[in-house]
Amino acid sequence: MANLDHVSNVTPLIDIRNVSRSFPKANGEDLLVLDHVDLTIRPGEIVGLLGRSGSGKSTLLRIIAGLSKPSTGDALCRGETIAGPPKGVAMVFQSFALFPWLTVQQNVELGLEALGVDAVTREARAEAAIDLIGLGGFENAYPKELSGGMRQRVGFARALVVHPDLMLMDEPFSALDVLTAETLRTDIIDLWTEGRLPMKSVLIVTHNIEEAVLMCDRILVFSSNPGRIAAEIKVELPHPRNRLDPRFRALVDSI
Ligand code: ADP
Ligand code: MG
């Protein structure tokens, strides 16, 4: 057995403590969306968040991404309160969230601009990320010229280009038709397996159990109304980074 004692001593990358979030309703009452949620992500972990539509998953991700704030409780990144988008945290949005007036290249470079990376390095890194994700040759296209699957590839490239310490994925395949989703999911898992995705930790929101089991080493099950972590499941399959391990193939083939 590997000695994992040191892991618990590492400052968590993300520490969500007792976080609740409500939104005002039209009738003046508050809608409680997140109810005393605790969640810790340690460096290197691949965590899945599984829950019904409307259970508050995106709200939680937005808090971690610094796009929203808890009503009560603490949201910390590397021990510090999250006050805006934390350094090293990138997000792939369900609805792609590309800027329509920017080209593929410009959309992907955006994440690096915020980090103050110089123009020459930005261009080279964006091109590498675009190639990696299978969009080589589309650098100068605009989002409206691309299919949904290609747009989400841009979303992945924009997040990956920063080599994130934590990649947040909010149902990244759910806005795509079934076949496109399957192709992109397979491509992402293959690249991940080959160790070619430059991300260290991942929090992926999904309502697809198979996807969660295939990708994560820990799955949090979210209950609805209000959102609460109801169960935690440890996945015993090796996560994608270890899938070159022949035991994984044997296991999958035996299912
Ligand atoms: P999920 O991602 O699990 O589908 P969300 O976090 O998007 O759930 O939403 C949870 C609930 O919070 C929904 O009822 C949604 O309408 C509500 N909600 C989310 N964001 C806002 C907002 N900015 N203003 C008001 N209500 C919101
Ligand atoms: Mg959502």
Q: What is the count of DSSP helices, taking H or I runs of 4+ residues?
A: 7
What is the H/E string?
A: EEEHEEEHHHEHEHEEH
Shape: globular
User: Strand pairing plus helix content: what structural class?
Assistant: alpha/beta
Question: How helix-rich are the residues, as a percent range?
Answer: 25-40%
**End-to-end C-alpha gap:** 25 Å
Main sheet characteristics:
6 strands, mixed
Percentage beta strand: 25-35%
Query: Radius of gyration from the CA trace?
Result: 18 Å
Trace the largest sheet across and list its strands. Answer: 6-7-8-3-9-10
Hetero groups in this structure are:
adenosine-5'-diphosphate, magnesium ion
Poorly predicted residue ranges: 1-6
Mean model confidence by pLDDT: 88
- Count the E strands: 10
Task: Describe the fold and architecture.
The protein is an alpha/beta fold and about 260 residues long. It contains seven helices and ten strands. The strands form two sheets. The chain has a six-stranded mixed β-sheet, sandwiched between helices. A four-stranded antiparallel β-sheet has the order 2-1-4-5, with helices on one face. β9 and β10 form a beta hairpin. It starts with 13 loop residues before the first strand and ends with a helix. The structure holds adenosine-5'-diphosphate and magnesium ion. Adenosine-5'-diphosphate binds near residues 23, 53, 55 and 57. One of its GO terms (molecular function) is ATP hydrolysis activity. It comes from Methyloraptor flagellatus. This is Nitrate/sulfonate/bicarbonate ABC transporter ATP-binding protein.
